[in-house]
């Protein structure tokens, strides 16, 4: 097995492998690495080849610690490989260990695109990796896009289905927006963040999202409007087998028109038209209780008739245990911040 770091000329080969992999993800796409480079990360694309073909791929995002003491590395929703091939897994981990050494990385966090139940956590721990605090949310809802639209609607909760149809009857229109319209969406997103108490990036970040992933068709901005008023908007990603709804905004005006419901449905239709098999609603609480802060998010997302799934979580390859322990108070908040920077 040959290992190498791929260059720009290898972009198409990289994306073809990752998008077709059972465990490929948009966060492992070449374009996502370009996006993170604009935010201060250094993306490295490690590939293992056999017989001239990629067999495993890991996009490693590297960021220095303060004062240049060391670096932290993160493989978001990766690496992409056949996890049933234990020999391939072991070779990939060895290659990542060597890469971490070459880059003076103190610790490298893997967060595979693998859901429970799985034997992978045990295999990773046997290989010396430690369970760690996840960056991405561990639980989400997947909506099956392989069914017909009629079947998908039938699987939804009655209220969700009713609200989708109500929005259409009331004249709400959903359309794909031009990249420059992100500024209108962002103003509404800031309102949403203030109302629902969550943290967002600067407008430049979302402009970069559309500038980097929009032209290749990996992302689209959908806006819901009524009589010229912007009521809601979402950014949806489509890469390989799965589409992801990551960012959503809604106005405080005309909320009785239920625009977000129709908007989400059109996001699913867009993903389905691109050949996606699954629509990832991107995060729900791990503990489903009505007093949970994200209960309202879960209640809305469950209405679309999807399946609750839970990822295996994150695992750290710690090269320098003493330094890692000494800087844990730095690393922990940084990786918490990574949750915002990496998505």
What's the gist of this structure?
With 343 residues, this protein is an alpha+beta fold. Helix content is 38%, strand content 27%.
| Count of the domains | 2
User: What is the string of SSEs from the N terminus onward?
Assistant: EHHEEEEHEHEEHHEHHEEEHEHEEHH
Low-pLDDT parts are none
* CATH third-tier fold name of the largest domain: Aminopeptidase
What is the straight-line distance between the termini?
32 Å
Biggest sheet character:
8 strands, mixed
Radius of gyration, CA atoms, in whole angstroms:
20 Å
Beta strands, count: 15
What CATH first level of the largest domain would be assigned?
Alpha Beta
What does this structure look like?
By secondary structure, this protein is of the alpha+beta class. The chain has twelve helices and 15 strands. The strands form two sheets. Strands 1, 2, 3, 4, 5, 6, 7 and 15 form an eight-stranded mixed sheet that branches. Helix 2 (30-38) packs antiparallel against helix 8 and helix 6 (158-169) crosses helix 9 (259-273).
Keywords:
7-stranded mixed β-sheet, 343 residues, 2 domains, Aminopeptidase, 8-stranded mixed β-sheet, 27% strand, single chain
Write the layout of secondary structure elements.
Blueprint: E1 2-5, H1 11-20, H2 30-38, E2 42-50, E3 53-64, E4 71-76, E5 80-81, H3 86-102, E6 105-111, H4 120-126, E7 130-132, E8 139-144, H5 149-155, H6 158-169, E9 173-176, H7 182-196, H8 203-213, E10 219-226, E11 229-239, E12 242-250, H9 259-273, E13 278-280, H10 295-302, E14 307-310, E15 314-318, H11 321-326, H12 328-341
Parallel strand pairs: 4-6, 12-13
Antiparallel strand pairs: 1-2, 2-3, 3-4, 3-5, 6-15, 7-15, 8-13, 8-14, 9-10, 10-11, 11-12
């Amino acid at each position: 097995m040959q290992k190498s770091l791929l260059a720009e000329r290898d972009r198409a080969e990289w994306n073809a492998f990752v998008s077709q992999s059972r465990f490929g993800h948009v966060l492992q796409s070449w374009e996502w690495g370009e996006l993170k480079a604009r935010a201060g990360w250094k993306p490295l694309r490690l590939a293992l080849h056999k017989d001239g073909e990629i067999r495993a791929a890991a996009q490693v995002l590297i960021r220095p610690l303060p004062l240049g003491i060391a670096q932290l590395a993160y493989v978001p929703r990766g690496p992409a490989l056949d996890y049933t091939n234990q020999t391939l897994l072991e070779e990939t981990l060895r290659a990542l260990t060597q890469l971490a050494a070459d880059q003076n990385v103190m610790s490298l966090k893997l967060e595979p695109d693998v859901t429970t139940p799985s034997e992978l956590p045990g295999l990773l721990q046997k290989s010396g990796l430690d369970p760690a605090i996840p960056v991405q949310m561990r639980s989400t809802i997947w909506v099956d896009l392989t069914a017909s639209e009629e079947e998908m609607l039938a699987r939804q909760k009655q209220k969700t289905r009713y609200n989708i149809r109500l929005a259409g009857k009331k004249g709400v229109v959903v359309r794909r927006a031009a990249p420059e319209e992100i500024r209108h969406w962002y103003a509404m997103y800031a309102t949403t963040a203030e109302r629902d108490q969550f943290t967002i990036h600067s407008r430049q970040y979302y402009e970069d999202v559309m500038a980097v992933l929009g032209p290749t068709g990996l992302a689209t901005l959908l806006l819901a409007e009524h009589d010229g008023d912007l009521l809601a908007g979402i950014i949806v990603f489509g890469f390989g087998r799965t589409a992801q709804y990551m960012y959503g905004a809604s106005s405080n005006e005309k909320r009785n028109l239920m625009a977000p419901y129709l908007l989400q449905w059109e996001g699913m239709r867009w993903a389905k038209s691109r050949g996606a098999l699954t629509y990832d609603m991107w995060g729900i609480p791990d503990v489903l209780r009505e007093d949970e802060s994200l209960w309202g998010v879960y209640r809305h997302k469950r209405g679309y008739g999807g399946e609750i799934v839970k990822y295996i979580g994150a695992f750290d390859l710690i090269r320098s245990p003493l330094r890692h322990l000494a800087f844990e108070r730095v690393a922990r908040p940084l990786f918490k911040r990574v949750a915002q920077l990496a998505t």
